[in-house]
Specification:
alpha/beta, Rossmann fold, 7 helices, about 170 residues
Length: about 170
């Protein structure tokens, strides 16, 4: 039998958020795209808890309609699989969000989008266009929902949050 590694680092985020959980119906953890301990902590927090129905917790994965994103998705999926195996976890894939999509980028973008949609599981929850508001919010170091709360992108993100948590 292999020995399971400790999970103190992975549980740090959960310990920090535990006092807030009673005050919220949903907690969304937005992680930077990395394959390090911060991602492990977020994945651990998003695991299915004992007695919890499937699909109530899990991960929503943003992707781009380009080949490099498919490679990164594969690496993340492997990280999720390894974490689940190492710590005996269940992590549900709630869906994908294709972000910064622009069909004017041609065949690479359109064929990549079709490839994401054809996965079926996890399903594509939304396709969010490459509009100026998101890039401006990043430049101003503001959350999109504060910078441009009425933008198409902000509304799409609200829909994703509502749909992924049902």
């Amino acid at each position: 039998a292999t020995q399971k590694r400790g999970f103190q680092k992975e549980a740090a985020l959960e310990l920090a958020l535990r006092p807030l959980e009673a005050d919220y119906d949903v907690i969304i953890v937005d992680c930077p795209p990395s394959l390090g301990i911060a991602m492990d902590a977020a994945l651990y927090y998003g695991r299915r808890r004992r007695g919890e129905a499937a699909g109530r917790s899990g991960v929503v994965i943003p992707v781009l309609a380009e080949d490099s994103s498919a490679t990164a998705y594969g690496m993340l999926a492997q990280q999720i699989e390894d974490l689940c195996e190492d710590l005996s976890l269940e992590i549900d894939y709630l869906g994908l969000v294709v972000n910064l999509y622009d069909s004017r980028r041609g065949y690479v973008a359109t064929s990549s989008l079709e490839n994401w949609k054809s996965l079926g599981d996890p399903k594509v929850l939304a396709v969010i266009g490459d509009l100026k508001e998101q890039r401006e919010a990043v430049r101003k170091r503001m959350p999109l929902l504060s910078y441009a709360p009425q933008s198409d992108q902000a509304e799409a993100m609200r829909q994703v949050a509502r749909g992924a948590t049902r």
